[in-house]
Amino acid sequence: MLKFGMFSWRDGMKRWLIAACLAVSGLLLTGCATTTVQSEVTAFHEWPAQLQDKSYVFERTRDQDNNLEYRNYENLVRAELNRLGFTEASTAHPPKLKIMLSYSIRVRDVREVYPVVVNPYPAPIMNPYWYGPAWRGYYSPFYDPFWYGPPIVEQREENYQLYTRQLRIVMAQVADGKKLYETTVVSEGRNGSLAAVMPYMVKSAFADFPGKNGVPHRVELKMQ
Predict the structure, then answer these.
(1) With contact defined as beta carbons under 8 Å apart, do 189 and 37 qualify?
(2) Higher pLDDT, 224 or 130
(3) Which residues form the DUF4136 domain (predicted)?
(4) Dist CA 138 CA 130 (whole Å)
């Protein structure tokens, strides 16, 4: 009866540990760095049902006109527009649309407290030469990591910086300046390199063009 009780208590502790580990793992996954970029995308538009002329030109501010970083992001937007059937206007053909884009990045300090399962009584190291046919199937509480009590859940603290990246793209008519499409992409993560994340933010901006008017949606893209 005592042996049965030992095994029953031991199995219960194992089930408890498995459940605790799964719960802690779920919490830790929210704070770990991932290989994806998640973006919150919101678009407002009054897009014409049929727009025959999709020629466009980028309208830049004075600072953007001589900014190499901006030019790189502009090329990303250009590639997406061309994929959607837009054409960049030439000097001989006046554009129908003008494209304006802006971006920013902010950082804040984050303090995160999360539980960690710790075994305060690690099992003793056994000599492999002790093992033998007669030892197999032998049970001793002195070699049971759960014999001395359940594992302890400790609170750990982690401090890191969280970056908020934002991209805004506006498409308007050249003739009267009327806005036809305006989208904002917001992404958060520990990666402080805007250049590394921007390609995925631009793709997210046009993932469902023109999309539902004023309805935020989340886009998740795997980083290459």
Answers:
(1) yes
(2) 224
(3) 41-211
(4) 12
Q: Which residue type sits at 128?
A: P
Report d(CA 23, CA 116) in Å as an integer: 10
97-118 and 55-58: which strand pairing? parallel
pTM of the model: 0.67
What is the arithmetic mean of pLDDT over 104-133?
71
Question: DSSP state, 177?
Answer: -
Q: Is 9 in a helix, a strand, or coil? A: helix
Strand 217-222 to strand 36-45: parallel, antiparallel, or no bridges (unpaired)?
A: antiparallel
Asked whether 198 and 163 are in contact (CB, 8 A), the reply is no
Per the document, the length of the chain is 224
pLDDT of residue 6: 45
| Average confidence (pLDDT) over 44-69 | 92
pLDDT in tens, 6-26: 445 455 555 545 555 454 444
Dihedral angle, C-alpha 140, 144, 146, 147, nearest 10 °? 30
- In order of start, what are the domains of the chain with their CATH numbers? 2-222 (3.30.160.670)
Looking at residue 124, what DSSP letter applies? Answer: P
